[in-house]
Write a structure and sequence with these properties.
- It is built from 6 helices and 9 strands.
- By secondary structure, it is of the alpha/beta class.
- The protein has 2 domains: 7-137, HUPs (Rossmann fold), CATH 3.40.50; 145-241, putative n-type atp pyrophosphatase, domain 2 (Alpha-Beta Complex).
- A 5-stranded parallel β-sheet has the order 3-2-1-4-5, with helices on both faces. A 4-stranded antiparallel β-sheet has the order 7-6-9-8.
- Strand 2 (32-38), helix 2 (55-62) and strand 3 (65-69) form a beta-alpha-beta unit.
- It is globular.
- It starts with 6 loop residues before the first strand and ends with a strand.
Length: 242
């Protein structure tokens, strides 16, 4: 563990995995002073793409200041392979964390991340934390996906599916609440089609609309876009409600 008393930053998309990492960090008594959301342009190998614009509402509900890294901060649109793109996508994040480190009293103690099984994500985030002399708190890492999902629901997380892109997930999943029934269906799809129960392979994306770490729930009005094999919700209005 790094020997300084600074404060923590949560990598945060508003989705279930990063929200769970944040929640567990707060539960563990870590002093989380900032949330950092990356708004990638188009598809991303490293980040949760859809609904990151809703991270601002989620951060307001959580009550922690949000730092947003915008698409124009990305340098490598022309990367030929995913490794180069992943490293290039980390550069603006690392620069933003460097600024946070300089800004926080005591500096940056550590970073929370929501990776479950992705060696690709975790190895790069670990290397970045090493360069920043910061600890990494990754409470989902290599945990059982079903047990993690159950723990999220037991804690009171309300999770909406905002994007699907896998065989076996049709338009009816868009906007659906991730509950015990949905998890049972995802387990069956995991066995029949290899769909990851937590969607870590990009099979689906989520938004946490309420939870014990949030003061107010997020209420959405949305339509859906479906191309026959994948789809996303199109948010028309979003607000915090008591």
């Amino acid at each position: 563990m790094t020997d300084h008393s600074g404060r923590w930053v949560s990598l945060f998309s508003g989705g279930k995995d990063s929200s769970w990492a944040l929640y567990r960090a707060l539960e563990s008594g870590l002093d989380v002073a900032r949330l950092v959301t990356v708004h990638p342009e188009g598809d991303s190998y490293m980040y949760h793409v859809p609904a990151t614009e809703l991270a601002g509402l989620a951060a307001e509900s959580v009550g922690i200041e949000l730092v947003e890294v915008e698409p124009d901060d990305f340098e490598a649109e022309s990367a030929d392979e995913s490794g180069a793109q992943g490293d290039a996508e980390l550069r603006p994040l690392e620069a933003a964390l460097g600024e946070v480190d300089a800004d926080l009293p005591g500096g940056l103690a550590g970073v929370t991340a929501g990776a479950v099984e992705s060696e690709y994500q975790t190895s790069r985030i670990e290397a970045m934390c090493d360069r920043l002399d910061a600890d990494l708190f990754a409470p989902l890492w290599q945990e059982d996906p079903r047990e993690l999902a159950d723990a999220m629901l037991d804690a009171g997380f309300e999770i909406s599916i905002v994007r699907v892109a896998a065989y076996g997930l049709d338009e009816s999943w868009l906007g659906r609440t991730l509950d015990a029934e949905a998890l049972a269906e995802l387990e069956a799809l995991n066995e029949s089609h290899g769909v990851h129960i937590l969607g870590e392979g990009g099979e689906f994306e989520t938004l946490v609309t309420d939870g014990p770490h949030m003061d107010r729930a997020i209420e959405l009005e949305y339509g859906t876009e479906w191309d026959g094999s994948r789809g996303t919700i199109r948010v028309e209005d979003a607000r915090l409600v008591e």
